[in-house]
User: Fold this.
Amino acid sequence: MKTTVLNIEGMGCSGCVNTIENTLTALPGVKTVIANLEKGIAEVDFDEQEVKEEDFKKAVEEAGYTMTGIQG
Ligand SMILES: [Cu+2]
Assistant:
């Protein structure tokens, strides 16, 4: 398992936080997601054998937000 922090642009309310959490949690290999509205981030625990960081970017964009980077 790996933990990474994604920078997410476009979250404006707690509904957006839920959308981001649900979107990322729905990906295979993702265990937990905690999004933070003030910081504009989502912390993701995932299995790097099953899901890749570019999959997060794609899913975030399909949900209507922008993933601007990865903090590590
Ligand atoms: Cu919102």
